Amino acid sequence: MKSRPNILFITSDQHRWDCFGFEHRHVRTPHIDRLAAEGARFSRCITPNAVCQPARASLLTGMLPYTHGVIDNGIDLPPETGELGFAGRLAKAGYRTALLGKAHFSSKATEVPSGTPECQFSSADYGPDWFGPYMGFNHVELMVMGHFQRRLAPGHHFLLPFPPPNGQHYERWFHGQGEPGEARRRWEDSIDGRGILAAQTWNSALPEEWHTSTWVADRTVDYLGSVKDQDDPFCVWASFPDPHHPFDCPAPWNQMYDPEEVDIPEHRFRDLEARPWWHQKLYGDEKAVDPNEYTDPTRGNAPRISAQTDAQLRHMTANYFGMISLLDHNVGRILSALAANGQDRDTLVVFTTDHGELLGDHGLILKGPTLYEGLTKVGLVVRGAGIAAGQIIDEPVSTLDLAATFQDYCGVEKPPGVQSQTLRPLLEQKSETRDMAFNEWRIGDIRYHLQLDLNLVRTKRYKAVFEVESGEGELYDLEDDPHEMVNRYHDPAFRKTKKELNDMMRSRPGPLLETPLERVGLN
């Protein structure tokens, strides 16, 4: 047995906390369920941010967004900051580090070349022989997009999926499948206006073998095989881009769930009058422009995505569940390879996601600065030596704590100035508790046509969102009100609780890195 464990870090993208077999939505995830049964799962874990780039930068660095500076999508993580993350520190300590799949540490939808391997233009400068290093990972096999959008975004100048020489390892592989041009044609067969089931929802015409989830598992299985006889331990991040929208599940997984039988939220209607001002400004004007509108094939370029009917929401949910089950199937393939190689005894296995999905909560879909539990709470499962099976840990933690956790298990000191706290004492049932976890998001005019400085504090019982500039916010008693129906922010009976949560928010540890608002939300 190795003196230092391997790390197998598996992530999904935009995956709700309740969409597992062990949760109440009863999505079929037998392989992730088995991980949870053999290890521990956290029932009050949150993401440090509700969109991809800030959340992923925090996963890598162990820093909150206002510290690493990626405070919204469209801001690139500086390489010198990324290299201080867990991958770079483990690499310097002798680990073989790899990232396979979606990185999204840098912006893809740029207007001009940015020089990064994830930029739609600059990716062409990184030829087929390039496999890193990148952000502390010695070896990378990446996808620039990962999501099969239906058409071009107004004002943007890229094709999806990126044709060679643009794109990265997945896109180049994808366009080489089948007969010449067949991959592009099959993708177009999915997006020609037929079979629209709901906003962001249709059935993919691509075969399962060409799907991103299959590719990420294929590359991970191959990588595990390539290092099975090596003395040096490995740290591999297998990063799946599903179940992020569009919800374009391929067969046969798009037939796994009957839309008439999936459960949809009881509280699936917009109640903007009970919410703070930015909810109303974002979703109260049917003529407002939605930042996700370009991927909605039914609405043209004008109004925002409207509230979905029950029938539409059921179709969306069925495809979303199917994408999760396909992902879980591929997680099973990776875990089987790990066991077949004899690597499972020496490996800490972690499954989580970057952030959640609204999926009809309060009449909303996708993601945005409406920080309900479906968006901010995430699943976190950990299995490894010294971790008792079947644990459910209810302390409030964050996925940014994984960076310190990996470094702790691998005997690597975490750098100063990060907020990440190791989860090892909780996993090994030591007498440790947590008071709170943080989420933060600064939004500029470019992204949502308003400015917000949102600071979220989550305790075991309460969640508060403070919009610092206006002084408005939200406060929910999640024990008595798990569906977040009654905002107690201005309730005199919760004045003391609000002050305590506000003091927690202001006690946020670590340095603050100011990022100009004019840079926010370009992706």
In words, what does this structure look like?
This protein is α/β, with parallel strands linked by helices. The protein has a single domain (6-432), classed as Alkaline Phosphatase, subunit A. The chain is built from 15 helices and 13 strands. The protein has helices at residues 30-38, 52-61, 65-68, 79-82, 86-92, 169-174, 182-190, 212-226, 277-283, 310-340, 373-376, 401-409, 424-427, 445-448, 495-506; strands at residues 6-12, 40-46, 96-102, 139-143, 234-239, 347-353, 377-383, 391-393, 397-398, 437-443, 452-458, 462-467, 473-477. Strands 1, 2, 3, 4, 5, 6, 7, 8 and 9 form a nine-stranded mixed beta sheet that branches. A four-stranded antiparallel beta sheet has the order 10-11-12-13. A hairpin with a 3-residue loop joins strand 11 (452-458) and strand 12. Helix 8 (212-226) packs parallel to helix 10. The model is unreliable at 152-158, 287-303 and 516-523 (pLDDT under 50).
Outline of the structure:
With 523 residues, the chain is of the alpha/beta class. The protein is built from 15 helices and 13 strands. It has one domain (6-432): Alkaline Phosphatase, subunit A.
Topology:
Blueprint: E1 6-12, H1 30-38, E2 40-46, H2 52-61, H3 65-68, H4 79-82, H5 86-92, E3 96-102, E4 139-143, H6 169-174, H7 182-190, H8 212-226, E5 234-239, H9 277-283, H10 310-340, E6 347-353, H11 373-376, E7 377-383, E8 391-393, E9 397-398, H12 401-409, H13 424-427, E10 437-443, H14 445-448, E11 452-458, E12 462-467, E13 473-477, H15 495-506
Parallel strand pairs: 1-5, 1-6, 2-8, 2-9, 3-4, 3-5
Antiparallel strand pairs: 2-7, 6-7, 10-11, 11-12, 12-13
